[in-house]
Amino acid sequence: MPLTPEQEAEIAALRETSRPTLRPVAEGMERHLHLVHPVLDHGFVRVVDYMGDDSSIVQAARVSYGRGTKSVQNDEGLIRYLIRHWHSTPFEMCEIKLHVKLPVFVARQWIRHRTASVNEYSARYSILDREFYIPAREALAAQSAVNNQGRGETLGDDEAARVLDWLREDATQTYDHYEAMISQEGQQGLARELARMNLPMNVYTQWYWKTNLHNLFNFIRLRADAHAQYEIRVYADVLGAVVKDWVPFAWQAFEDFRMGGLSLSAKGVEVLKRRLAGEVVTQETSGMSKGEWREFEGVWGV
Fold it and tell me: Name one GO molecular function term (predicted).
């Protein structure tokens, strides 16, 4: 069950309540407020609160830069200018607070984005639910032969079946022992803060995560990338859809210049100029390392 009955009742009450406000309101985000977006087998993302919209970014930029923005004809143009030139502060004027349910191993990746306020479900005080992430058959893959931190070919049927059986058996057994260790029926029972150490990394946790739009863009840029681990990428994809409805001008600029754009080194710019001038440039004459040249050719090779 993604939500407890108590959480469902709280959400229903919140969605039925309407209050007048003088704050900027993003109609697209209003539709997401308290709506549960399922992720993986037991996870979810829910928007708890937000502050600001596209106009908040523009307002902050015009206060900061004043007459320097007079040449920009409209709000969308200004936002694209800010993204294009790597300005960050105006995007910090928008904030979002999320309720996220996710496997512990995904949470440990996620928490590396330290530019947020986080309050996680505490297994010192509460008992974790018997919920584990068990990958879908097609998500099981061997280690990549070329990438030390990535996946390669999908496992064959027999190998996948064996792995799935182990994952289910191990998760069930460790939770049985966890439950037995903290039991109060006829035994003293181990403290919850100690019993939790026996749980596997695929058990689910929950947290509230609050961050600003600038840092959220950084999260999405890294975690929605095709090279990111699938289990965190699906969360980033959901957040991208939410942000698109929240700040459509900012999202479009972010897609164009960050997700769909490319960064070139000074050597890369020089090689392109030489090629446009008709020169044949090789890795040996480019001044680039083999790794740099391989990535450059992957995009610009002819």
Answer: flavin adenine dinucleotide binding
